[in-house]
Structure formats: C-alpha cells, structure tokens
Amino acid sequence: MTPDSLKREAAARALDFVEPGMRLGLGTGSTAKHFVELLGERVRGGLDVLGVPTSEATRADAAAAGIRLSTLDDTPALDLTVDGADEIAPDLSVIKGGGGALLREKIVAAASARMIVIADESKWVEMLGRFPLPVEVVPFGLAPTRLAVEAAAEAVGCPGPARLRRTREGHAFVTDGGHLILDLMLGRIPQPAALAARLAAVPGVVEHGLFLGLVSVAIIAGASGIRIENV
Ligand code: 5RP
After folding, report:
1. Phi and psi (nearest 5°) for 228?
2. CATH number, domain with residue 79
3. Facing residues of 136 across strands?
4. For residue 57, what are the domain limits?
5. What distances in angstroms separate CA 42 from CA 23, 35, 150, 189, one per listed residue?
6. Is 98 helix (H, G, I), strand (E, B) or coil?
C-alpha cells in the first residue's frame, strides 16, 4: 500500500457521508483531489450535489470532474466539507495549509455544519507541531510581522523560526488571496488554543493553519484498514 493509495481509500470512505442535495465544501491537496475525482464519478452517475471549492486548483479539478459549483457568496451555508490535513491530533485539532490554501479552507470549513478530514495514517500525531505551522500574512511589513509571529510562538512555550515559504524556483509562494506564507518550525505545540489566539492578534497575520474545534470526523487509512475518529 502506498501513501497515495491510502489517501484514495480515505477519500472513498468519505463518500459514505455524502447525501443527495448536499452543499459540499471541497478541500485542497492530494487527498482532497482523490475525493473530488471520486465524487465526480458519483455525479456522473446521477448524484446531485453542489460544491464550493477551497482553491483555484480544486475549482479546476471539480469543474473537470463535472461537479456543479458555487461560491460562498451564493451558497453561504454548507452541509459538509471534506478536506485533507497535514497533522491530526487525538482531539481532532489539525494543522492545515501545507498546500497553501488554509485561508479559504478555514472560511469554507467555518461555513459548514460539519467538517471531515481524510488522511493516510502518517498524519496522525499525539501532539501537533512536527509539521511546520503555516501562517498566512500580508506582504506589507513582512519583517515585523515575522518577528511578531515568532514572539507569539515563544510566548506560549514553543519557540522556533518562521520561514518564508518559497516555490521550487525560489520565488516567494503567493496564495490564491495574494498573500505570503510563513512556516513556523516549532517541533511541538503544547498549547494550540493559546498559540492560535496569539497569532490571530498579530497585525499582518491573515490566518493560521491551526483548525481547532472545526473537525468532527477524521477518516484515517492505514495498512491495517480504515479507522474513523469522532469528537
Ligand atoms: C492544503 C492543505 C492540505 O489539505 C494538506 O496540506 C494535506 O495535503 P495532502 O492531502 O496533499 O497530504 O491543507 O492547504
């Protein structure tokens, strides 16, 4: 079993939570891409759902899959969002944003009655923080924003550098919203809620990748099968 086949298995299991007529948030990343492809197969078989994508990449994938699409402006309340995650802790707090779509992902998740995360078992952790925490920031005043982000992490017991995310070509990575991403290298985040509050209070921070209290179900695919975690 490859990690990618496990991602597809988790995505396939998430289809069991989809009902006809649902308004669905469509996540971003390689696992969410599997879900969009599999959902597209169901749609072509007659399932009627409406999708709101969390990125331009997912919009393109969903359109190609034949899924009827909307925006949050036209469809402000969603029934369910299915998305991937970079890390998932036992209380279903998660880190997202490895693909750079955290801002739209969080807005869509917050507009949804339920959020399901789908992942291979490598994403399951006892404590968040090994994965660098993405923090989306405006380009203006990047240097002081970076210092304030690092100070916020230090103040809650998890000091670490904030690195500007770059593309493979070495350019600054720019999100769909025209912002930059600082990846906070913390190792462990003992107090996620305290860190989330500190980061949200930094001028220049648009959003951070800590999704706390948003996920109600995690579908984790591993070598020994699929496990479903609820809160
Ligand atoms: C994108 C995300 C992704 O859901 C997260 O990075 C997981 O990606 P993948 O499914 O490719 O492992 O948050 O912003």
Report:
1. -115, 125
2. 3.40.50.1360
3. 181, 207
4. 3-124+212-230
5. 15, 11, 45, 39
6. coil
Domain count across the chain: 2
Q: Is the CB of 192 under 6 A from ligand 1?
A: no
Secondary structure (3-state) at 213: coil
Q: With contact defined as beta carbons under 8 Å apart, do 200 and 103 qualify?
A: no
Report the separation in Å between the CA atom of 177 and the middle of ligand 1, taken as the mean of its atom positions: 17
At 148, the amino acid letter reads A
- Helix 192-200, helix 142-155: angle, nearest 10: 150
Helix (H) or strand (E) holding 80: strand 78-83
The reply to whether ligand 1 has any atom less than 6 angstroms from the CB of 100 is yes
Q: CA-CA distance, 32 to 38, in Å (whole number)?
A: 10
Note the pTM of the prediction, 2 decimals. 0.97
Q: Which of 86, 123, 176 to mutate to test the pocket of ligand 1 (most atoms within 8 A of CB)?
A: 86
- Give the model confidence (pLDDT) of 170-227 as tens digits: 999 999 999 999 999 999 999 999 999 999 999 999 999 999 999 999 999 999 999 9
